[in-house]
Amino acid sequence: MKKRFNDRYLTNDLPWNINRPDFNLVSTVKEFGIHPCKALDIGCGTGDNVLWAARQGFEAAGIDLSEKAIEMAKEKTEKNKVKAGFFTRDIFKDEIPGAPYCFIFDRGCFHSFDDDAQRKEYARIVSSLLADDGLWLTLAGNFDDGRLDIGPPKRSALDVVAAVEPYFKIISLKQGRFDSNDEIPSKIWVGLMRKRG
Question: What does the pLDDT look like over 70-81, one tens digit per residue?
Fold first, then answer.
């Protein structure tokens, strides 16, 4: 998986890279009154969501499998004179710097795992990186989109609930759309969860 994503950044085959913060992140932070805190973006890509969070006062960091993505994110940080940390890490194998976090965001990581057990393990790891009562916002491709052969991987509501339920209390799970440059953006699940005590 690491080589596949790095190759896509090297060839600029990046349909998910919209060069702005995802409006789902912005609106969720505002709607639920998530105050600036220590935050992590898993699968941060070129860093637009991390930069937005840092500008809002979050102590923001991002991790990604792709060395090229992290290089691009660091360049954006320097260009925009924003303080944020970026690290090349594999969530399943590597120690994640800065934990525990109060808020974790992922835009399209959860849905990238085809196996139920792997999605549940991902949720467990996210939980382990959060402080008590920490929040996780995930944006995941939605099976109800119907266009299963295009766009991001699609997951059912049951896929989401089954993976996160042991580790998180679901605050909100609603249908939405990816912030995208596509004419018809893919449907997603916008899931906000709180770590169980």
Answer: 999 999 999 999
